[in-house]
Amino acid sequence: MSFSFSPPSPPLFNLTQPFSFPPNLLPDEASPEWMNKADNAWQLVAATLVGMQSVPGLIILYGGAVKKKWAVNSAFMALYAFAMVLVCWVCWGYRLSFGDKLVPVWGKAYIALEQKYLLEQAYLGMFPNATMVFFQFVFAAITLILIAGAVLGRMNFYAWMLFVPLWLTFSYTFGAFTIWSPEGWLSKMGIIDYAGGYVIHVSSGVAGYTAAYWVGPRLTADRESFRPNNMILMLAGAGLLWMGWTGFNGGAPYVASMDASLAVLNTHVCAATSLLTWLILDIIFFKKPSIFGAVQGMITGLVCITPGAGLVQGYAAIVMGIFSGSIPWFTMMVLQKKIKLLQKVDDTMAMLHTHAIAGILGGILTGLFSEPHLCKLFYGSTSKYMGFFHGLHLGTSQSIRLGFRQMRIQLLGILFVVVLNIVMTSLVCLFVRLIVPLRLSYEDMEVGDEAVHGEEAYAIWEKGEMVGKYSSYYNDIETPSKSGMISVE
Questions:
Q1: Which of 18, 65, 164, 252 has the smallest number of Cβ neighbours within 10 A?
Q2: Domain named Ammonium transporter AmtB-like: which ranges (predicted)?
């Protein structure tokens, strides 16, 4: 017995009646004709996902990944930066980064608080400026919070309070305008940075490493033994960081499009491949499947794919994951231990390897693998975007020339971001040092959270008083109990 199925015929449109939108889609004063409700909704969701990477994502990751006596300080550095960046962003940061051009690398300072401005259409996308200001804010905030990862465990909190607004103003806004603003110098040239491989990750990695140099190292005992105080919390923060990257790269096209979908898939494929690559290398060379190493591999994969997430094919995401799981592994696990110059700078969360090197790698690989058709979907033009390998595949003199040109621009962008952040971060640190010490005192570093904030991460409170209030320094020491079992006081 056989069955046949005929799909129902589509309903015939009554061409005699004028077309009209459903009532919920009709334009009105709150939803003007230029605004796309779906795009606006997705952009707000994407921004929230990116915000959650910081609050609570990196708060939890930092708080769990550091020694117990630094859990509060590390988490609070992230929370403070998130709040301070937002106030600076709406008062002057956004317009410096995306406003009218002052010079080829910087916009004009102005507020982004007026009703008239915030309800106008954004410079890109079919949604209001208010949505764009919030979306770009969460990227600026996470950049500062990533920098904090390099100086955990010794930076004076008062110095951090000054560093955040100064670095945002005199470093981040330069990079954002130059690479992302339509009026920026490198943007006009045709640099490819899909969602922040240059603006965020190379910047934060280089700036963090530079700041770590000026702040100085942790205590010798902390450098030699700095095990995570709560591995499960660290994994929870890492998970929020990974899932939040859906908004990080998926929101980059400013539209709920096919390209956004491709970017999301490529992002997670590259991250997973990188994590597995790092894990396999740890097992082969150190005979242990390190959880901390797996988190580092996840992060390097996310960073590497970011400059080209929606501009490369799926196989390229796999290749990029293999490179991002192996090259930063080599620089961190091998070169770091052999090169004395790298050992002089105390980079707490290995920002140089996980963000600067992985971001540079991503920028180069994006220049190699980017596809003109995908670039057209994202940029709306193929005249100046040509991946090197695609140019070689086409084999014409023009395509090869465009491929070489793209690689030159990608390398020029790396040079610009590296030099910008070394110079500006150094100037900011030297200025802050004139006002307050960059580094905590030896005594405060011995104690940790209680000395800096008067609070501890894991304390028992009874009727408003702490029970068994000991220094965090001694809380990290394991002591034998009366029963002979090991306990932690």
A1: 18
A2: 41-458
Q: Give 93's DSSP letter.
A: I
| All residues at 6 or more sequence positions from 146 whose CB lies less than 8 Å from its CB, including other chains | 58, 200, 201, 204, 205, 208, 351, 355
Q: Which two tokens stand for residue 423?
A: 């110079």
Query: Which of 73, 105, 95 lies closest to 140, judged by CA?
Result: 95
Backbone angle region of 287, left / alpha / beta, with phi > 0 → left and psi within -120 to 50 → alpha: left
49 in Cβ contact with 132 (< 8 Å): no
Bond into 480 cis (ω within 30): no
Give the global pTM.
Answer: 0.90
Strand partners, 467: 460
The tokens for 167 are: 């670095």
Q: What is the DSSP string of 218-281?
A: --HHHHH----S-HHHHHHHHHHHHHHHHHHHHTTTSSSSHHHHHHHHHHHHHHHHHHHHHHHH
Burial 340-357 (b: 16+ CB within 10 A, else e): eebeebbbbbbbbbbbbb
Residue 76 token pair: 């609070």
